[in-house]
UniProtKB/TrEMBL annotation:
This is Beta-peptidyl aminopeptidase BapA. Pfam families: Peptidase_S58. It comes from Paraburkholderia ultramafica. Its EC number is 3.4.11.25. PANTHER family: BLR5678 PROTEIN, D-AMINOPEPTIDASE. One of its GO terms (molecular function) is aminopeptidase activity. The lineage of its organism: Bacteria, Pseudomonadati, Pseudomonadota, Betaproteobacteria, Burkholderiales.
């Protein structure tokens, strides 16, 4: 759901030919909810986003998951156990780089409150926190993110998911423009059944000359429009890509952790279409999970539903790539301009390109 709320603005281009879900967000996957907590005060331009895979207790009823590290310049926590065991056991939290520890502690405390046996009669809990560096707009050294912000985002979780300069996306930049949270979904037919793939991204990557929007080399077009833009493009083109993107992919298709690993890798295809080359200083991480079944914490045996055969996964791969690309477009499309630390400012895509609809041949 776009945060822009501008009825006169044309809808963004629809990526691919697969239909989207009714909400156009990751919440089109049944059971998934998202909450934001946004910090917007002078030099503090940051926040927290929490994704809940279902309304129950994720430690007691875990969901299968897998992660792909496309480029590992990142400081996320919890990926090792996801890779080993193939399950989630906390909500997924997103924030800035220096907020990771605070959110991990918040997740641990929340899990212990719900299950006092954790760390005693039961095993310890694996907090899962992803991050991007919002230090250009946000005073990241202030360590402003706290446990309460996680709790607020968790309590705000619903199927009405905002995009743009909200939550963890408040201080993020994308292609030298304002980035942030993006959402999308696609419905894919597999062997006569329809399944939904939803994506939520925390977009904080790229340089302007690289920007490609639905196949249009928009960054190059902008750089060529005026001498000052060309000069700025030349300066930024010489700089290494140092941003990051977190891509969360949810599906209701019955997949196991091995298959979800394969699905998560296809997020890189959607990312690449926007112009990213996964630069040296970029942390590009994708996590995929399925809501089709739960893994009980204390079970002796686990009964799986019939899984999609590997040879039938291609429609889901396509839905993953398209929804991730669409979510990146949504992050740019929905963001508003933000001024933060030391007067640093990131203009939104729409403020930077007033004739965007004409460039992309869209109808208002």
């Amino acid at each position: 759901m776009s945060a822009a709320g501008n009825s006169t603005r044309p809808a963004p281009p629809h990526i691919g030919t697969l239909p989207g879900g009714p909400l156009g967000t990751i919440a089109d996957v049944a059971g998934v909810t998202v909450g934001h907590c946004t910090l917007d005060q002078d030099a503090l331009q940051t926040g927290v986003t929490v994704i809940r895979p279902h309304r129950g207790d994720p430690f007691v009823d875990k969901v299968p998951a897998a992660v792909s590290v496309i480029n590992g310049f990142g400081k996320s926590i919890g990926l090792v156990q996801v890779e080993e065991l193939g399950t989630l056991e906390t909500p997924i939290a997103l924030t800035n780089t220096f907020g990771v520890a605070a959110l991990a502690q918040a997740q641990i405390r929340a899990a212990i409150r719900a299950n006092p046996q954790i760390g005693r009669e039961w095993s310890t809990v694996n907090p899962l926190v992803f991050e991007c560096n919002d230090g250009y707009l946000n005073d990241i050294q202030a360590l402003a993110v706290t446990e309460q912000h996680f709790n607020d985002a968790f309590d705000n979780a619903s199927t009405q998911v905002a995009s743009g300069s909200v939550g963890a996306g408040r201080g993020m930049s994308c292609f030298d423009l304002k980035g942030g949270i993006g959402n999308a979904s696609r419905v894919a037919g597999v062997a006569g059944r329809d399944y939904t793939v939803g994506a939520l991204v925390l977009a904080n990557f790229g340089r302007l000359p690289m920007l490609t929007l639905d196949g249009t080399p928009l960054g190059r077009v902008l750089a060529e429009r005026a001498a000052q833009l060309a000069a700025a493009a030349a300066a930024t083109a010489a700089k290494p890509e140092q941003g990051s993107i977190i891509m969360i992919v949810a599906t209701d298709a019955p997949l196991d952790a091995r298959q979800l690993k394969r699905l998560s890798l296809r997020a890189a295809a959607g990312l690449a279409r926007t112009g990213s080359v996964y630069g040296h200083g970029s942390g590009d991480i994708a996590l995929a999970f399925s809501t089709a079944h739960a893994v009980p914490h204390d079970a002796d045996f686990i009964t799986l539903p019939p899984l999609v055969a590997d040879a039938r996964l291609d429609p889901l791969f396509r839905a993953c790539a398209d929804s991730v690309e669409q979510a990146i477009v949504d992050a740019l499309w929905s963001a508003v301009s933000v001024t933060g630390r030391d007067g640093h400012r990131r203009l939104s895509l729409h403020d930077s390109v007033p004739d965007l609809a004409q460039l992309l041949k869209l109808t208002p």
